[in-house]
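G., the chain you wanted modeled:
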Amino acid sequence: MTRFTVPEMSCGHCTAAIEKAIKEIDDQARVDCNLEDHSVSVSSDLPAKALQSAIYEAGYKSEAA
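Predicted structure as tokens:
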């Protein structure tokens, strides 16, 4: 499980965009977005850097949590 902090994630549209971006590079990924603490947890075989790049491509900055 890889976890990121995404400070700009603030609504359902944000979480949907992030989940879609990650699923585009790994359709088997499990993505859990938590708006309360602005975190995204991802279960995937892809490296954290690839997941973070997908989040960035969706328009959000993220940090490893």
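The first strand starts at residue 2 and ends at 5.

Shout if anything looks off.
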